[in-house]
Amino acid sequence: MAEFSTSVQERGDISIINLKGFLDAHTAPTLENNFTQLINSSKYKIVVNFEDLAYISSAGLGVFMAYIENIRDNKGDIKLTNMSDKVFNIFDLLGFPLLYEIYKNEEEAIKKFSGS
Questions:
Q1: pTM reported for the whole predicted model
Q2: Are 49 and 18 in contact (CB under 8 A)?
Q3: Which of 92, 90, 64 is nearest to 77 (CA)?
Q4: Could you tell me if residue 114 is inside a domain?
Q5: Residue 56 in domain
Q6: How do strand 101-103 and strand 77-81 relate by DSSP bridges?
Q7: Domains in the chain, number
């Protein structure tokens, strides 16, 4: 079975979800729980760090689509950072760069929240 884990850090009013391993249909509920907990805590400024993510499936991508509307309705956003070329290509293929802001690193994404 593919390994997957997340960790959440707080940087002021911004929540950072760090992904590690393989995000697919079996592991997607872990990330869904992270988003649900943040929304339930009224934390809508979210950065997702993909630095240690080796693989993402369409089910993994679906997690982002499931929560983005609720988060944006609450004046927040999900910003994506540190994607490997392999992971970025999957997002790019499905048109995600039109829907989400993708940054090279965490600091760039955090600065964008500060500027808004």
A1: 0.95
A2: yes
A3: 64
A4: no
A5: yes
A6: parallel
A7: 1
